[in-house]
Amino acid sequence: MMDEFSLLLPRRVYAGFSSLSHIDGIIKETGAPKVAIFTDKGIEKAGLVDIVLKNILVEYRIFDDLPAEPTYLEAQALVDEAGAYGADLIIAVGGGSVMDTAKLASLLQGGQIRVKDLLDSPLIAKKRVRTLMIPTTAGTGAEATLNAIVAVPEQKLKVGIVNPEMMSDYVILDPEMIRKLPMKISASTGVDALCHAIECYTGNKANYFSDIFALEALSLIMNNIEKAVKDPDAMDAKVKMQIASFYAGIAITSSGTTAVHALSYPLGGRYHIAHGVSNAILLVPVMKFNEDAISSRLASGYDRCYGHSDLSEREKSKAMIERMEEIVKSLEIPSNLATFNVGLGDLDDLVEAGMKVTRLLNNNMKTVTKEDARRIYSQILC
Q1: Is residue 290 part of a domain?
Q2: Are both 235 and 149 inside the same structural domain?
């Protein structure tokens, strides 16, 4: 347990049915005469932006030219476009990539600093525009984190830019925004939240603050994710997943992810595998690798999720990992990289890239050597 720790939260969070009705009040509170809406074309096509627009009574402009898993150059292009508009409030309506780009824009609008500058010196920028995050998935937790993830093509890697100034000012968690979320996206983002929760709880930086949110997120996810993903009408389970995603995001700000995320970054950066899917593929192999160092924490997680029992610590630990494996399989997420045409010929490059993510590897409770990374990647190649 860390000797010193901290917690940073959004200024205000609204959650539950009809919480979108608070948008007008937020705009009035900020005094913003112009609003920039960050989203993507898929979200617009799904009609989710229209739901938000009903509550916006001031001038606005939509910025939607953003691909999934954007590079830092693609993120910069949208930041520049929005910067020319000069909004007084940025509203992000979307998943992790949309919210992360909005967070970057909140630091860079009207300034001389570029996204590329933040890759090397993330703390040089200060917030210039306030933000409202409205997630359309129940998984990334980006509405509550200090991170912005961008792909860096020249490194064939994803990189996390971390700056406390990127904490959202306002968050709205309205289940209407995830009611019709496709199963594939619901599954991968939900497992992403599961990774956030268990990694934050079993990392070196775990502390009393992060444990509160990570454990509650873990319990909500383990007991609701399958129903929330598979049953379109299971709104109670969907609400719980939405809250769990937010809690897991808070845990990241105080603790942080570990080797699952570290080793998944090259899969997104090199092979453009969706972030949640790459995490899901690596979750069980990394947990099995870590088990001898984190068994007591996995056992505590078991007690929180399923109640105390007469099982031994090791039995609970193994049961937790087996349950995670069942969840990934049940949600029909790939369990290896064969689907993505990644083979043994890619192994050396994966290891080399994964070992560069030292910020997260250093948070892993068990040291990950180059050979350890090779063995973990080898397990998921076929």
Answers
A1: yes
A2: no
Residue 184's contacts (CB-CB under 8 Å, 6 or more residues apart) are none
Reading the block at residue 197, the tokens are 């929760």
Burial of 55 (0-12, 13-18, 19+ CB in 10 A): middle
Residue 252 near residue 9, CB atoms below 8 Å: no
Contact present, 8 and 146 (Cβ < 8 Å): yes
In the predicted structure, residue 76 carries a pLDDT above the cut 90: yes
CATH number of the domain to which 272 belongs: 1.20.1090.10
Burial 305-341, CB ≥16 within 10 A → b, else e: bbeeeeeeeeebbbbbbeebbebbeebebbbebeebe
48 and 133, same domain (yes or no): yes
Do 212 and 343 lie in one domain? The reply is yes
pLDDT given for residue 296 in this prediction: 98
Does the pLDDT at position 2 exceed 70?
A: no
Question: Where is average pLDDT lowest: 57-66, 192-201, 339-348?
Answer: 339-348
Same domain, 161 and 204: no
Q: Given a cut of 90, is residue 80 above it in pLDDT?
A: yes
| DSSP H stretches of helix in the chain | 23-30, 41-45, 48-53, 72-85, 96-108, 115-120, 183-202, 208-230, 235-254, 259-271, 275-306, 313-330, 347-354, 358-361, 370-379
Tokens of 67: 């691909």
**326-332: which pairs have CB atoms within 8 A and are 24 or more residues apart?**
327/191, 327/194, 327/222, 327/225, 327/226, 328/191, 328/280, 328/283, 328/284, 330/226, 331/183, 331/187, 331/190, 331/191, 331/225, 331/226, 331/229, 331/230, 331/280, 332/187
Please state the pTM of the whole predicted model. 0.96
Using alpha carbons, select from 73, 178, 164, 173 the residue that is nearest to residue 115.
73
